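User: I'm writing a tutorial on reading structure tokens. Could you give me a worked example: one chain, its sequence, then its tokens, then a sentence or two explaining what the tokens reveal?
Assistant: Sure. Here is the example chain.
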Amino acid sequence: VLKTPVSLDMLGRIFNGSGKPIDNGPPILPEAYRDIS
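And here are its predicted structure tokens:
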């Protein structure tokens, strides 16, 4: 099972297909991890 980090800090950010930020913003500190299905 794949999991991805989630956080309110992700709102308005730009990510690649792997979920990594590509907008040169600050690092994302995950609040939880969600399953990808």
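What the tokens reveal: The chain has no helices and two strands. Residues 8 and 26 are 13 Å apart (CA to CA).
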